[in-house]
Each structure stands twice: as C-alpha cells, then as structure tokens.
Specification:
By secondary structure, the chain is of the alpha/beta class. Helix content is about 30%, strand content about 20%. The chain has 14 helices and 17 strands. Helix 1 runs antiparallel to helix 2, helix 2 packs across helix 5 and helix 4 packs across helix 10.
Length: about 450
C-alpha cells in the first residue's frame, strides 16, 4: 500500500463531499466523484485502500450479466460486496465505488469487491486495482469507432493484467484464452452440442489462421464466429483443455458441469447459448473463489436475467420478448438474430438498434451492420420486421441485402410508433430487439405492444 499523501487526503475529502451532495440531490448513479478524484490526484486509485479480495470481469459481451450473477449469488450467501453498478466500468467509475466503500481516511469498509471493467480502460485500472480473480468472458469484434479490432483490445488487456491475478478464461474462445500466458489460469467451456457446425457460417470469424505458423485452422466444431474447438494441422496450437466443462440440457433447464471428472448439476437460467456461457463463467469464478456447489445451486434457483436485458411475457396467447441486441456490436446482434430464428413459432420483430449517438443526433460508423448476420432474419417464420429509429433506412437496406422480402419490412423513425404496424395475424411471438441504452424505451414499446394485442382481442369480441 502506497503512503497516502496530503494531496490524496484532500482529494478524498472533496470527492466524498461531492458524492454526498449528489446523493442529497437524488443523483445516485454517477462517476463524477471518481472523475474529480483522478483529476485532482492522478494516482488516486493507487493510494486508496482496496478490499482484500477483488474479482474483476471484462470482455466484449456478457460482462455485465456475469458481474450481476456473481454479485447476486455472493450477496445471497451473506457476503457484503462492493461493486460499481452505480457508477461506470471505466477508471472514474471504479474510483467512485472505492470512495463510496471507504472511510474518510481512505480505509476499505468491505472485504470483497466485484468490478466490471471496460476492456479499453484496463490499462488505466489494472495497474492500481490488482484483482485476485480476473475474468474475461470473450473477445470479439466490437464498435469499430471505439474498439478497433479484437487484437487491439487483446493487447491492452494482456499487457495490463497483474501477474498475480488468477485468470478465469473461456477455452472456447481462441482469442481471450491466450491472455497473459504466464498467469495462473482456469478454463471453462461448453461441450460439443448437436447444433454445432463443422465450419463457421457467420460473416465474421476473427480467428481463421494459426497465430504461430499462420496455417488455416481446422475445427472439431464451431458454435458461432470463432467460438468452438480448433486445432492447427501443422503445429501444436489448439484450443486449451478445459477445467470446467458444461453440458446444458435446454429441455430440462439443467446445466451439468464436469470438474476434474466429477459432475455437478445446476439450474439453467436461460435457454440461449450466450447466456449459458455467462452462467458457466460465473459458476467457474464462484467455485474458484470458494463457494460450494450447494451454495451456488440454491442461489441460482432465485435468479433471472435482468429485465433490461431480457424479459418474456405472454398476453392473450402471444409471447412478447424484449432482448438486448447491443447495437454497434455485430457479434452480439448476430447471436440474437440466430436465437430469434431458432425459436419456434410465427414471429414478428421490432428492431430498435440505434446507438445512443444516433439518438443524440450524431452517429457512429455504420459499417458494423455489414459484419452482422442479418441473414438469420430471412426466415419464413418471420412475417414482419418493423425497423425503428433515425437509422431505419440503413437497417432496411441491410435486410434487403440479406434477402428479406421488402413487403415484410416497415420503417418508422419513432420507436414508440412501431407497435402500430404489427400484423398480429397468426403471430405467436413478438421480439423487441433493442440496443443497450434503449432498455427503458423498449419497455415502453412493450407496454404499447400489450395494448395493441388487448385492443385486437376486444375488437374481435
């Protein structure tokens, strides 16, 4: 622990005061106190005392869900956890959380912390926040404007990770599984599924050649994009062996995990493969942390994916699903599109993919839509797609390129107007696919969809 300077003490006092003022004003979720602290004292994160045990979670997709599962299960088992839910996942958000969890002299009030870490912010956080357990869900191509290419993000994280951190890594991801090779590591994976393929069918696969000899990789199976099990036919490079091997049974909603030959069974909290990965990631981290099988099993029975990311409700026989699709992220959208395609029944879709930049009157680069597999939405079981938002014409053009008949497509600039265009004729499921920052608007759209279904019933009666 570095000696606390007078500058640090004054900064902590001022930032703590700023936090109290914000709370008095009802501003509970803010990274401003942490931003102020780092501005006044650049090595603030290095001087403030940290909890004894820190679990950090990063990765392109799933980090928020994994963090929430870990926090909820630890809380359910009586642990008092410090987290950064109320701030942000950049250095200022971490600083705000540590301020909230510290005494006025900078001593930590809690013994355990679980922090979500933005991938690009790793280099600003890990030199000071040295986690006992560093979890990486996966590394994919993300927003080009912010994250460039997964190799760029890989290098940032790998160079920043402290050598003493115990890594929890996805063995099915050939990119993130190679992070910081000298660190202690525990791998998790999902065993081969009946739905796996012999080769990638997605537009994007960012791991097609061996990183050692550059020979094209061969695959034992591909799940999606570069997720699967691969090997190089010319050298020894291959997917790492897994310590935790999960086998989901979607018919019985159970998840069996083999750990060194011993099997443990857990409740499955979602029927989507990407949320299954999130659950397996959290279970692996919690078991390595020290929780027992029984503790995790009992807590998982109480959990659901938070409504801002997934919700399902049936109204007059029609299931309404809201599902975060994370605009500007072609992999996340492709996975959700594939999930919708695989779901049985006659479907209608409301797309709300405009990024926060779009809704603010600005725009990010739109090239990402040509990396996303909109082709999955070209299905006979999908008989209407309502595209909403200021960039609706861009998405319509991409769907036309994907072969979706134009008569299935409706555009509306205002998201709240989308339910007015539903057919509701033999429809069994309505999917509202929304961007990360459009969760509240998606719930308003969902309520209007419910009204439309109810009005249709009343009209027929």
């Amino acid at each position: 622990m570095k000696k606390k300077t007078l500058r640090f003490q004054l900064t902590l006092l001022l930032s703590s005061l700023a936090m109290r003022i914000q709370k008095l004003l009802g501003m509970n979720a803010s990274y401003f106190p942490g931003k102020l602290a780092i501005k006044l004292c650049p090595n603030f994160l290095g001087q403030i005392e940290k909890p004894e045990t820190i679990i950090c979670v990063t990765g392109t997709n799933g980090k928020t869900t994994v963090c929430n599962i870990i926090i909820d299960i630890l809380n359910d088992n009586g642990y008092d956890i410090l987290d950064n839910k109320a701030g942000s996942n950049i250095n200022a958000g971490i600083a705000s959380s540590l301020i909230a969890g510290s005494t006025i002299t900078g001593k930590a009030k809690k013994k355990i912390a679980v922090f979500e870490i933005d991938e690009r912010s790793s280099k600003l956080i890990y030199p000071y926040i040295k986690p006992n357990f560093a979890v990486c869900t996966n590394l994919f191509r993300d927003s080009i404007h912010r994250n460039a290419h997964p190799e760029f993000i890989f290098n940032i994280i790998s160079k920043s990770l402290p050598k003493q951190a115990h890594l929890i890594l996805n063995a099915d991801d050939l990119i993130s599984s190679a992070l910081s090779p000298k660190n202690k590591r525990t791998y998790f994976s999902i065993a081969k599924l009946d739905t796996d393929l012999p080769k990638c069918i997605n537009i994007i696969n960012d791991m097609q050649t061996c990183p050692n000899c550059h020979e094209p990789l061969s695959w034992n199976y591909v799940r999606y994009h570069h997720i699967g099990n691969a090997f190089c036919p010319k050298c020894s490079f291959a997917s790492p062996d897994s310590d935790y091997i999960a086998s989901p049974d979607f018919s019985s909603n159970t998840l069996t995990i083999s750990i060194q030959g011993k099997e443990e069974t857990y409740p499955l909290i979602s029927n989507s493969i990407f949320n299954t990965y999130n659950e397996v990631t959290a279970i692996t981290a919690l078991r390595e942390f020290g929780l027992t099988k029984k503790q995790i099993q009992t807590s998982l029975k109480k959990l659901n994916i938070v409504e801002s990311r997934y919700s399902s409700e049936t109204v007059n026989g029609i299931e309404i699903v809201t599902h975060m699709a994370k605009g500007q992220n072609p992999i996340a959208c492709s996975c959700v599109f594939d999930y919708v395609k695989q779901e049985p029944g006659q479907k209608e879709i409301i797309l709300m993919l405009d990024d926060v930049f779009d809704r603010d009157g600005s725009s990010e680069i739109m090239t990402w839509i040509y990396d996303a597999d909109f082709e999955f939405l070209n299905s006979d079981q999908i008989h209407r797609i309502i595209i909403s938002g200021v960039r609706s014409a861009d998405y319509k053009f991409r769907l036309l390129m994907a072969g979706v008949p134009e008569e299935k497509l409706i555009c509306t600039e205002k998201e709240i107007d989308a339910p007015n265009h539903l057919l509701l004729n033999e429809t069994e499921k309505i999917f509202i696919l929304h961007e990360l920052y459009a969760a509240e608007e998606a719930m308003r759209v969902k309520n209007k969809v419910k009204e439309a279904i109810q009005n249709r019933r009343n009209h027929h009666e």
